[in-house]
Amino acid sequence: MNQHLKNIGSMERWTIENSVDLYGIRNWGGGYFDISDKGEIVINPTGNDPSHVVSMMDVISGIKERGLGMPILLRLGDILQSRISLLHDSFQTAIDNFGYKGQYRGVFPIKVNQQQQVVEEVTHFGSKYHHGLEAGSKAELIAAISLLKDPEACLICNGYKDEEFIDLGLYAQKMGFKCFFVIEMPSELPMILERAARLNIKPLIGIRIKLSTRAGGHWTESGGDRSIFGLSMTQLIQMVDYLKEKEMIDCLQLLHYHLGSQIPNIRDIRSAVVEACRVYTGLVDEGAPMGYLDIGGGLAVDYDGSHTNFTSSRNYNLAEYCADVIEVIMGTLDDQGIPHPTIISESGRATVAYYSVLLFNIIDVSCFQTLPLPETPAEDTPEMIVNLLDVLHSLTLKNMQECYNDAIYYRDEIRQLFKHGNISLRERITGENIFWHVMKKIAADLSKLKHIPSELEDIENALADIYYGNFSVFQSLPDSWAIDHLFPIMPVHRLNEPPRRNAILADITCDCDGKIDKFIATHNVRKSLPLHDFKLDEDYYLGVFLVGAYQETLGDLHNLLGDTNIVSIQIKQNGDFKFVREIEGDSVSDVLSYVEYDTKAMVVQFRETAEKAVRKGLISPNERQQIMRAYQKGLRGYTYFEK
User: Fold this and answer.
1) DSSP H stretches of helix in 106-222
2) Which of helix, strand or coil describes residue 253?
3) What gap in Å lies between CA 642 and CA 29, rounded to an integer?
4) What is the DSSP-derived secondary structure letter of residue 259?
5) What pTM was estimated for this model as a whole?
6) 376-415, pLDDT tens digit by residue?
7) How many CB atoms lie within 10 A of CB 89?
């Protein structure tokens, strides 16, 4: 039995601290989320002022009063501002502590969250730190140069570049932007130099290299000799020779590498910086002025709060990350007498992950149920069913493993008898019912065992309820489906009550993959989530946290479930808050148009179909009017479940 159910007693014994420990909110919340005495999640916008908090349920009440339905993507601009400040302040602290002679410049990779509001707020909040942007495509570059106003901020151009991309970047440089072209392929350099000559400008050149260092985690293929992006060491020296030949070596000022999006182990980070610094010193020896070292992304988010090198965690904090980067760069370059470069990091995930929370309501529950059993079986009961009933009655702690094996055997035999027509449907159902009585009895007694056999560990998960959430995994949490990424998920209220149910979550996409059955835990992955009893007359809300990175960008239209409603709030010093932006989610008409339906033509076609039904006497003209009204209302409606 799961540990939390062992400890749940009466309502009076359950405390807020029990919920804190159960869901680990203070481990993964970064100080931005906690639980109030009322049993509600509260938002702390700075992460360090417990008096400056807002209840999530108060925010939900405000959302409902404004007529917006669930699911909602809640954006917390104060947290985004806090994350940008924390990143720069942490690097500045390390710079001051070590006596580093260079500067730090953060850039936000637009691909992490391309939504206009997000990029706009990053540039706004980051302006005091000269926080820049990274663009990996022409469209991202166009977005970047429209939003970035600070000439001291860096604009990093990664990705593959055509002439139009290059011209835009060169024009940006002419207008005062510090725009670096990072060479991904050898063929890009001649084109950049040619376009720059035509515009009479000396380009700022960077080179992305393939390090031999590789990191663990989901994105390990981003690094190493066979990574698909960047130049090999041979290609690197060819580019250097080409620049020398063209007398343009003075344009080479930046070295860039990228290990992956979520690097859980600080040793991999240190190893990569060491290798990159050796390449950097080699480029200085070749005559390149250099001056900038772009260490890419990879600064991890501790999604499960375990503070380990597990894929969904990290075994370091931000201060350690900054200190290690500064220390390694200084230790390597000082030996060669090379000036300290400006450090650039593309820490997108760590910047925006905390910024967004997905809120949704539970619309239904499928509970695991068994039927009452007769005290004695009927005389004509098949032998296998009688044997299975004997297993149930003889089950003890000492023979639990044996009874489990026997129950599996007899259940399978009963199923075979049914397939061959030797027992009836009711008899088959009786056998299944007895079998699940056995499983429930075993699950109830597991906590009494000193050592739980491996075959019995998953019984409680097999008995878990299914809570149906008003959301789409594919639209709002695609990484959960695609790569088994773990996000913190928990109720946002009723946390002063004991959660008595174990559940998996199903979405409303009508797809067997539209579920979440892996959840964070301190020392492992939990296969079910402790939740409260579902009450038909009360709304029950869950939150998925740390979803600000990639999830909006990667979401798809599975079952034509579109973008959710979006609400942004700003939290005031007195603990009050205000709604600063509301963006309505996709309507049915919107998503149909995305997949090439002409909704106006559809209305005409459906009206003709309805009129044919009138002529056939199937419906009346008045009913046709009602049907058309419902059809058009449906087109205007939200794609998610509406009450």
Assistant:
1) 116-126, 138-147, 163-174, 188-198
2) strand
3) 30
4) -
5) 0.92
6) 888 899 999 999 999 999 999 999 999 999 999 999 999 9
7) 14
